[in-house]
Amino acid sequence: MQPLTSYSISRLQEMFARGTVGPVEVVRAYLDEIDSKEGAVRAFIETSPDQAIERAKRLERLDPKEYPLYGVPVAIKDNICTSHLHTTCASKILAGYTPPYDATAVSRLLDAGAVLMGKTNLDEFAMGSSTENSAFKITRNPWNTDCTPGGSSGGSAAAVAAGMVPVALGSDTGGSIRQPAAFCGVVGMKGSYGRVSRYGLVAFASSFDQIGPVTRDVMDCAIVMKVISGHDAMDSTTLPGNGNDMLGSIDKGIAGLKVAIPAGMSGWGMDEDVRHSMDDTVKFLETSGARVSQVELPDMDVSMACYYVLANAEASSNLARFDGVKYGYRAEAATLSGMYRASRGEGFGEEVKRRILLGTYVLSSGYYDAYYLKAQNVRKMIRARFQDVFDEIDIIAMPTTPTPAFGIGEKVDDPVAMYMSDIFTTGANIAGIPAISIPAGLSREGLPIGMQLIAGAGREALLLGAAGALEKNCRFRERCLPDPRRWGV
Amino acid sequence: MKFSDEDMEHLEKLANIDIDPDSRERLVLDMSRIIGFVEKLQDTLTTGGQERVEQGGMGTRLREDIPSACLERDVVLEQAPDSHRGHFRIPPVIDGEMT
Amino acid sequence: MITGKAVYETVVGLEVHAQLLTRTKLFCGCPSSYGAEPNTLVCPVCLGLPGSLPVLNREAAGMAVLLGLAFGCSISNRSVFARKNYFYPDCPKNYQISMYENPLCTNGTAIIGENGRRVGIERIHLEEDAAKLIHDDNGASLVDFNRCGIPLAEIVTRPDLRSGKEAADFMIGLRQIMRYLGICDGNMEEGSMRCDVNVSIRTEGSASYGTRTEIKNLNSFRAIEAGIEFEIERQKELLSSGRKVIQVTNLWDASGKRLVAMRGKEEAYDYRYFPEPDLLPLVLDETLVEDAAKRMPELPDPKKMRFQEEYGLSAYDSDVLTSEKGVADYFERAAALAQDPKTVCNWVMREVLGEMKRTGVTMARFPVAPESLAELVILVKDGTISGRAGREVFLEMSATGCAAAEGMKRLGLEQISAPEKLEEYVSEVLRENAPVVERYRRGEGKLIGFLVGEVMKKSGGRADPHAVNELLSRKL
Ligand SMILES: [Mg+2]
Ligand SMILES: [Zn+2]
Question: What is the per-residue burial (b if ≥16 Cβ within 10 Å, else e) of A117-130?
């Protein structure tokens, strides 16, 4: 018999419905995986084995058929509020903080029967691309523990890749789900802006942030998206409707779709193995009946600059609330402003400070027009360009990242180089459109390579269908899994 | 675009963040580099296409004026670094002192 | 030596914050009420907890639109919330959600004072109120977030006011209108209406403005007038002695009648406003504006004119009766029932308003309903009781909340018209006033009034004056 931890959500649901296995058994099996692998991978900031078993026991009295995620263990990125677990954003400033409420995405998972296994590591406040900016630990890439898992949802991606959970939630502001998913050989998706409620997601950049799933395959991803999507009265930026259509095109494949490849990709410092993967993808698309063309996308350097100005401007304001008054870390000082400055100076890490300072700078008097306003106008232009593109085509296909996972410590001293690892992903956040990363193959060093598919606003179902077809072609999970024997612990 | 020490001081004040003297010099350098990086916005023409306003076109959703449950005070103050008689307690505020 | 003394003109602009009378806060469902235990009317949103998001209260938007319409503002069908960034412990997110570049209402006009001066309303926008800070004895400060997030309408005038008195007049008029609209109770002492002023002076006829200073903490109409006049004198002194006015923010100390400097220009704050990304623009759907327009009551000025024309009341009476919508409504209801506006006007002006003033009870809680007042007026008019007795009955009604008939009964004031009782009074009066009777008989006919009065006195005002008159004429 296959190990219990290898089943997809739908297989698990079948087994639960038939009664061949119960949630407690499954949860125990995953807890064992966490126990044996966490030491090497360090994906979690906090695990909750006792609560998970308790909940699994309670679920055993309920009817599996009524809960789409009955007994499914999930991990939650630690910038998403959970009322029974700490929520730290991997920051000293929120160490020990327990929110008095659950994020909407979390309560939707719980209502669907999921079991929370713990909170995963991230770059502090989701600011980073390697999960090295955590105040608590550095997460390792399960494919090569000398490499980063990417970030900022590195803990979520590593936990799924290492088989410690089948599903994790991440958050994606400029690629923070898709980039680590690519680095770790798992599926990661962000929906259209407003598809999943942000209520309870500790804001980094409000107009870019989206919560999304990290899973082992596209089908699981679609099932989780269906549960967490939909309008929320607590987030007035959510889109109307629910996620019921999420699986509507899941078997439609890619034949007949108009797929575009960005022109001039060679100029973007792409790794050779990534390029091969891209070529394979194009070949597959052509042979499977898609109509493939080239498309001119907005300049990616400019997109990155636009993203950094706007995201950090919003961040500088969003993170102002961490001041030592109401919750979190307080440095003792005689005066109020002394308390503010010391609490924030000691509580925030370097990268967070850099971004707050940059965001403050671009909003400050004398610079607002040149940076913030200009970037807003550039954003409008980029959005318009994507709208035009999606008038003509259905899907954009491109690598998720220019290179596979990089080494731990490799880019920590060069913030701009670190930013560039998000160069292919920020476009979807600027435009507010859905995008997914699926594992397409391995580099010669044995590191996963992710392919990214992007669709027009509101077209998640079509995107998931196309991703399913590409996944079938890559057969990634059948061919490769990370090898714990190489973790050297 | 040069980013100076004085710029840094001004930002520290606006953002209410003490910068550790040891990392200060590097941070000033980082800021110059990042500002240099976002500088490319300046050469970008933004007179191109017009964004069609779709999802945002209808404007913000409104809430009806109906009360909902509040939090328990104990739960709220439990997270506070310091509290006193049902209040959050903080170092003295000087009237009008805005930081 | 004679020096030409410059003639200065005062220039004042106001920024008023008015708490709107919604049931819940601007961006969350917490009740926006007073008097609760500290930090019990709070939720993740108004505490600014990580991950929380604002959702706009429809009623607050409606009230702000109503206010804008009342001043003839243009109502923007697409206004934008913005974040005003500053660190202060009364502001839990360390930014206030307000409006900046695209406010909800712009370009209105208010008419103030007796000669109807026009004052420009530059803008009206929505924003969230701050928390309450308390200074602890032990040198710490305490924060209560109950007030935090209550909707405020910020009303900004053009620099059209020319004196402290005009500024106070504006505020009185604004409060009157907001009370008419039912959107703010306008209580300055309790802070539900607050006012910051900008003051400058310039030589008369000058087209440019002088350097302005700001005064905060003006929490009564009197303080507004006094604070501004104080500041004008200070600025005049500076300029006449060749010195300069420096841009500064002062707090008015009402007890010491002095200004305390708060912060100077060099510390002028950089609020780094930018559009609030958590809220899409406020796009007014037609129903919202229509609903507001439907709610628009007759405003004080038109009502005053109508009272003069429709009821034939004096300008003064009309002014008093329309000062509060509640009083005007009360008057109109009673006048309609009693079918006698002028008499009802007298009753309301004298008795009702007098009693309200004496007891401090508001119109909404005044114990004599307009229906009861109308009954009483009718009883007096048809002679069931005398006017004087009527006033006593009114006092009883006002003290106990009883109806007019009940009040009469309680005071034993049913009218006496039984002939034998009246006969008794009349005979006594004739006996006791023999000289007067004599004079009457000799032709001083008007003395009958005196005799009627004496009978009334004897009866404690309860005798039916018509019957008394008749009886007296017969007996004499
Ligand atoms: Mg204001
Ligand atoms: Zn609240």
Answer: bbbbbbbbbbbbbb
